[in-house]
Amino acid sequence: ASSSEDGSGNGSGKEERKSGKILTIDNINPHVKKVEYAVRGELAIRADSISYELLEPCSKYTFKKIVHCNIGNPQQLGQKPITFFRQVVSLTQYPYLLLPENRSKLVTLYPTDAIERAQTLLENIGSVGAYSHSQGIQHIRKNVAKFIEERDGYPSDPNLIFLTQGASSGVQNMLQIITEHPNVGIMIPIPQYPLYSASISLYNARPVHYYLNEEQDWSLDIREITSSVSKARKNGIDVRALVIINPGNPTGQCLPLENMRDIIDFCHRERIILLADEVYQTNIYQPETRPFHSFKKVLRSMGDAYKNFELVSFHSISKGMIGECGQRGGYFELTGIDAKVAEQLYKVASVDLCPNVIGQIMVDLMVNPPKLGEPSYEQYKKEITAIYESLRRRSQKLAVCFNELEGVTCTNAQGSMYCFPTIRLPEKLIKAALTAEKQPDEFYCLAMLEATGVCVVPGNGFGQKPGTWHFRSTFLPSEELFDEFCDGIRKFHREFFEKYRD
Ligand SMILES: Cc1ncc(COP(=O)(O)O)c(CN[C@@H]2CONC2=O)c1O
Questions:
Q1: Given pLDDT bands bounded at 50, 70 and 90, which one contains residue 268?
Q2: Of 301, 374, 337, nearest in space to 152 by CA
Q3: Which atom of ligand 1 is nearest to the CA of 248?
Q4: Minimal CA–CA distance to 335: which of 152, 205, 169, 140?
């Protein structure tokens, strides 16, 4: 029988429909098929299958478990949640504990400020099991606005804040809104966190790449973005938005103030909306020389000439010292966005009904933690500081480890949770990779996984200049195991380079 009665060859013929799958890889949304998300790609999938092989009695592997360095997922690698956050959330989940008759027992288990916080939240939420406002609970949005005002020194409006299922869903809603037609261009850095390239594929927009400058600590060169936008516009691409990840993922750079002013000026001049991904704003390891400045603050400091500038800023509970990735909490703030567009964003948010309420509560705790003098402040401060100092030490240790490896150069992370070393591979290794039909950095990362159980992400998962090779690793393995983790990588690298020495 013909492939289809109407001869269209699209497999929609009645004959096809009588047998075989209705939904096939050939007839699903082609934009979905274009999506790539390396953070949980081939390496992570292989790592998961090895983790099952490790359970077998006669496992061939020399290591006992997989070390997931492919994803910034701190609590997967043993980081403890913030006590106060979990105390409050646990009480909101079981309000029975808050009843007066349980008070005498409760105060032996919970600090009074956790009890009061849970009560205040429930007074404003009702039940955590109820749908909330689609933009998020107003009480929490007010606390987000207050946090932003105190951080930046400029006003913030709770009605222009959207609580979201992690920053990811906010980013995707914004990209969807911006993509009016398939020729809309979104400027994204190379290397970039593949949420952006994946979402651009999904919504059938056009990625407009700009390279970060590896030789200058992955800085963003205004000449680069200027040439990138003019080249794209010459090719008929309707460039609408510029994505900045600050501090950077995978590159870890934290932008200097002057650079940020130049970026705002560039967007203002070129009439481009700025999407500022600031989820790592507290993961700052060189605060003396590279402190974090929000784009909102820098924009407002530039005065009235920029009062109509359009900016969307994203934040999340998944990063920082909190690492509550699985609770799925975050927000974005609209600055200068047309009111009618904001209404459409609300409509899109309402299709998902609401972000999960526990994630919203976690956002409240992130922006409004215990204050000096409150019962939980000392413990909160101790926990946050210990996590911060440990992340800072591990970031430096990993950079030192990578810099000792033959052919590897790694800048110290100024921020975020990753090192992104460049690696000069021997010709013999490159040839072996191509014979195995793998990108050379992917071939290297797969070999590292098989030899050590350490799962990282090859540079091609983030984009890189042609002819250069990188990989990204988190510095999240626990400090007790960190030296062993580094030693395993050193041993693998030495032997692998020996094997493929030119
Ligand atoms: C720059 C950046 N933006 C947004 C997100 C999404 O965070 P939510 O959890 O709030 O949706 C991530 C997550 N980091 C990914 C996940 O782990 N490793 C990564 O590179 C990120 O790195």
A1: very high
A2: 301
A3: 1
A4: 152
Residue ranges in 408-478 assigned as alpha helix (H): 427-435, 440-452
Q: What is the pLDDT at residue 7? A: 42
Q: Which atom of ligand 1 is nearest to the CA of 474?
A: 18
In angstroms, rounded to a whole number, what is the distance separating the alpha carbons of residues 179 and 239? Answer: 10
Each residue of 161-207: pLDDT tens digit? 999 999 999 999 999 999 999 999 999 999 999 999 999 999 999 99
Rounded distance, CA 208 to CA 186, Å? Answer: 6
pLDDT tens per residue, range 384-441: 999 999 999 999 999 999 999 999 999 999 999 999 999 999 999 999 999 999 999 9
Pocket test for ligand 1, best of 162, 174, 249, 456 (most atoms within 8 A of CB): 249
The ipTM (two decimal places) reads: 0.99
Cα gap 485→491, rounded to integer Å: 10
Span from the CA of 170 to the centroid of ligand 1 (angstroms): 12
Residues with CB under 6 A from ligand 1: 39, 71-73, 166-168, 193, 195, 245, 249, 277, 279, 316, 318, 325, 330
Q: Is the dihedral of CA 135, 137, 140, 142 positive or negative?
A: positive
Half-sphere exposure of 392 (CA within 13 A, CB side): 12
Cα–Cα distance measured from residue 327 to residue 361, given in angstroms and rounded to the nearest whole number: 10
Distance CA 421, CA 468 (A): 11
Distance 168 CA to ligand 1 centre (A): 7
Q: Enter the tokens of residue 210.
A: 């700009």
Kindly report the pTM of this predicted structure.
0.94
Summarize the confidence of residues 311-319 as an average pLDDT. 98
